[in-house]
Amino acid sequence: MEEEGLECPNSSSEKRYFPESLDSSDGDEEEVLACEDLELNPFDGLPYSSRYYKLLKEREDLPIWKEKYSFMENLLQNQIVIVSGDAKCGKSSQVPQWCAEYCLSIHYQHGGVICTQVHKQTVVQLALRVADEMDVNIGHEVGYVIPFENCCTNETILRYCTDDMLQREMMSNPFLGSYGVIILDDIHERSIATDVLLGLLKDILLARPELKLIINSSPHLISKLNSYYGNVPVIEVKNKHPVEVVYLSEAQKDSFESILRLIFEIHHSGEKGDIVVFLACEQDIEKVCETVYQGSNLNPDLGELVVVPLYPKEKCSLFKPLDETEKRCQVYQRRVVLTTSSGEFLIWSNSVRFVIDVGVERRKVYNPRIRANSLVMQPISQSQAEIRKQILGSSSSGKFFCLYTEEFASKDMTPLKPAEMQEANLTSMVLFMKRIDIAGLGHCDFMNRPAPESLMQALEDLDYLAALDNDGNLSEFGIIMSEFPLDPQLSKSILASCEFDCVDEVLTIAAMVTAPNCFSHVPHGAEEAALTCWKTFLHPEGDHFTLISIYKAYQDTTLNSSSEYCVEKWCRDYFLNCSALRMADVIRAELLEIIKRIELPYAEPAFGSKENTLNIKKALLSGYFMQIARDVDGSGNYLMLTHKQVAQLHPLSGYSITKKMPEWVLFHKFSISENNYIRITSEISPELFMQLVPQYYFSNLPPSESKDILQQVVDHLSPVSTMNKEQQMCETCPETAEQRCTLQ
């Protein structure tokens, strides 16, 4: 009956959900009834506040508002609806509210609404904004879920979440029975989690005919989505952008100089409006930031240049929308926002009038052959350039400065952004797919098939980590590893720490390497002071142990401080990132909760003893035996054990600061770039490595001097026991990893 009420244009229920500005009827009596209906909020039963009506007028001005009636009709009649619209058209905030109205109209008999986003900052900001527009409380009727933070209750009607959190929910709720409408947003970002959800939801929709799927996308991806999902209705949101685009007449070598010249030319022109600059990488942000800051007050009559650096990859803080109204001050302030790729989602202000785009980005591309990321400079896609242009919104005087030629845009830029699945390490994804296969959802029709080589490498790594059994299915170890929202290697180290009685310490390491960098950005000229402060935390056994020392010092300060301000001051004094340490605290608490929930043994902390130090290294080696390097010449040139790449210790490593270079190290991260740094390193002995490395992994290593040294260590220790171990491994593992590991 409720669905029929929504379809009927003259029903009173439609009056509640469709404001009269969209209604075709114009009777005075019906308008009065509509106003009476709007007085009580149907979601909480309380009277609407005056702010609700103020925000309602703003919502009615959004380009998508004209499509509300069309969307609701299609939602009633179809299982899948695609919404195509540019940035700032309102689809991310309005479509979920309309879906909540639909679920309310059928009394939530199939569940509530969940809307995914790729970036967690967007999740929080949208949830806050939508709760405000719906005139309800955040955390009650509207909530959000991001990694290590859940702001929802069982009664929450509309949830915003990151795509990876919905994916994790499928491990305990495979068919997502709590939801009547699922909205996948930010599809054009092509994240691994979103692509996996797109594929798995095909099967879930067949199993649950009552479930509705809404796909929000930019127009560039619509044809691909149509061929992927078949003939489904598309709601197109028209949003004109009268933007002046300026290209370079010829290619320039130094974009840095052009950026600075443009910023100061715009400022000297006297035209009002903020500036957004898209740079290739975070190092460029720091470089431009420093130069602009030095020249920001050259002409006080023109106002002040306020530099706002935005780092999209920093997880420690939620970037709030820029102020919509200028601050009341005597001097005009023009904000210069410096960001990189994926920074588009951080710009929520309507005061931007100028966008400067370098047209290239530093991308992280995973190479499965050497198990390492390469940082490569590549042109952005045409769709990314278009989204950056849309930041200017409906500004009639917006200008988009392209620091590249029109020919470069048409020939060198690809039409669409590459799918992350084709450029990233797939080990975590394959572990999830193996876990979900237990629920009968192992097959996944991906929009873009991952490279077979990447899949095989992921399966091989899971096999080395003992996450798979002889049939290629998840082992008991693998099932427990999948419970942790971490990289599989880190999960394996936590499991090993249960055996080696060092869970407390390894949980701290896991939290610290998962949280953002705990070291703050150091202002120019303060490098020596920062190093002096950091030296107080250095641990002789390595960087993993230094992270434990920093966390323990932070904990002690928190316990002994009278206020949060004292903790923040302590962090500032020691050049530490307070929000990153807070996040590490939250992550550690959740990991400890998982340990208790699955009833793993938990030993008392014993940090500092020799036995504990050895046990921590054993636990780390159990997960990171594939990330070992040796100093081949005694001067800090480390050769990877698995390939021929040479790297140096990161300048912030304790070993770099103390100038003591161990011969063998275990490292947490390595990327191939102009500076081949290995990050977060700790010394290990070859004897300890050979005790813990899976024998069939060691035998598969390519020939090298390092492998010969390790083999000599084994022969010297116990040649007979080693032969017996190899024979035993051959008996228990007669098949190769390739034969045993087949992705279902």
Automatic annotation (TrEMBL):
Q: Quick one: signal sequence residues?
A: none
| Gene3D superfamilies the UniProt entry points to | 1.20.120.1080, P-loop containing nucleotide triphosphate hydrolases
Q: Which GO terms describe its cellular component?
A: mitochondrion; spliceosomal complex
Q: EC annotation? A: 3.6.4.13
- Give compartment(s): Mitochondrion; Nucleus
Q: Main localization of the protein?
A: mitochondrion
SUPFAM superfamilies xrefs: P-loop containing nucleoside triphosphate hydrolases
Which reactions does this protein catalyse? ATP + H2O = ADP + phosphate + H(+)
For this UniProt record, give its keywords in alphabetical order, as a comma-separated list.
Acetylation, ATP-binding, Helicase, Hydrolase, Mitochondrion, Nucleotide-binding, Nucleus
Name any one GO molecular function. RNA binding
InterPro entries listed in its UniProt record: DEAD-box_helicase_OB_fold (IPR011709), HA2_WH (IPR048333), Helicase-assoc_dom (IPR007502), P-loop_NTPase (IPR027417)
Residue stretches making up the Helicase-associated domain: 457-548
**Span list, region Disordered:** 1-28
Similarity comment: family membership: Belongs to the DEAD box helicase family. DEAH subfamily.
Tell me the protein's name. Answer: Putative pre-mRNA-splicing factor ATP-dependent RNA helicase DHX32
Which species? Pan troglodytes
